[in-house]
Amino acid sequence: MNPFTYARAGDTAEALRLGAAGQAKYLGGGTNLVDLMRETIEQPDALIDVTALSSTIEEREDGGLLIGGAVRNTAVAEHRAVRTRYPVLARAILAGASPQIRNMATVAGNILQRTRCTYFYDDDGARCNKRTPGQGCDALEGFNRIHAILGASPACIATHPSDMCVALAALDAIVHLRSASGERRLPFIDFHYLPKDHPEIETVLEPGELITAVELPSLPFTVHSTYRKVRDRTSYAFALVSVAAALEMDNGTVKEVRLALGGVAHKPWRALKAEAALKGQPATEAAFRASAEAELSEAKPLRDNGFKIELAKRTITAVLMELSAVKA
Amino acid sequence: MQFLINGKSTEADFDLRTSLLDLLRDHLGLHGSKKGCNQGACGACTVLVDGERILSCLALAVQYQGRSITTIEGLASDHGLHPLQQAFIEHDGFQCGYCTPGQICSAVGMAEEIKRGLPSHVTTDLSAGTIALTHDELRERMSGNLCRCGAYNGIVDAITEVYAEVAE
Description:
Structural class of chain B: alpha+beta
Strand order of the largest sheet of chain A: 4-5-8-6-7
Shape of chain B: globular
Number of strands of chain A: 12
CATH class of the largest domain in chain B: Mainly Alpha
Oligomer: heterodimer
Helix content of chain B: 25-40%
Largest sheet of chain A: 5 strands, antiparallel
Radius of gyration of chain A: 19 Å
CATH architecture of the largest domain in chain B: Orthogonal Bundle
CATH superfamily of the largest domain in chain B: [2Fe-2S]-binding domain
Strand content of chain B: 5-15%
CATH class of the domain at 224-327 in chain A: Alpha Beta
CATH topology of the largest domain in chain B: DNA polymerase, domain 1
Helix content of chain A: 25-40%
């Protein structure tokens, strides 16, 4: 690990001032960043501890929630309003990492965690465009069972590892950002980039910009939502495929649906094609399967991960069947 | 820098790169917490901070100034071993013992989580106020602590004996 300075920010203004200098990085629970620094994949010269910043979950008058960037993952999953009104978010968080890690990790840190592509981590033995831009990607022709089937590029086939983010993508979340030049808010699904030619640029964040909060708009039907994660072990493993879904039905037809996939792309994958295919359709297994087919129509298998395409279709169908059964 | 470790106010000076685990082991001579993977995969380094279980290998020590840290060395009292330590002995909850301090600290933290009604991945009803520590709940909640000897049956039995009644 390279040497660094450390400062604990007392408020957002102080964090922004400290974060503007040199190669500073904001530090939450450290569960990913410390590991990456140990591997020298991340080499910040200053760490700005932002865990003293906004760590509240505010219930808004319109029924939405404003979740501070420094709220711990456990606290989000434990919150009464999240458990009852946005169960997909509680379930996604509880499906991720381990209890110890969820006690440490923050919401903003979870959003900014980096891929667990083994070639990205192997800085002694593998080429990686994300780690060293322009170097090449050894995963492309390598062991790529865990890699992306949607939105990948010849430069990068890594996946985003978060479960929480898949739920946020499904929930129409808004991310709140602050920098020296002010505040901006944008749809969470526009926060992460697909890899294209520059997989090293993963998000819209400008240097020194800080995630201050995530806003969940009021969507009453998200009380009927859930998260299903398919992985190599039944616990404490990253997703091969995961599905976050919310469903509202009206007389046996799909009135509203939100769908997002994890483990399949460089970013949390909002399944807009499937949603469009489902709206107004009868809530049947055939319609759910057809929507999954539509979403995966442009999926591209690599040498080892072709199974994910069928797995994603079946998981989408199963989750929608589960939600429609609850509603019946 | 100032820490409260196993109830004792402790002063320490160290390189900023030092993890909480290395602070405990290398600077303070508390060798109970173990370094297994040193990358957050095994749980052998689990300690309690203000009663919550965390992984000390991924924690930069500097972030934990002023916090109350409990390690396996701090669980026993003047009256003897912590009930869970005793139960691990009685149920053969270990073979080599390397993961044991992390298992025990983790289970102590887990019991508090159950008490406050924190759901888990296998909890069916997210809105339930109380959660029973069933076999499935216990195994899910302890999945962050690996035991490569495979002493899981004894570990589950020990934790069940001490905590299964916590949630009624």
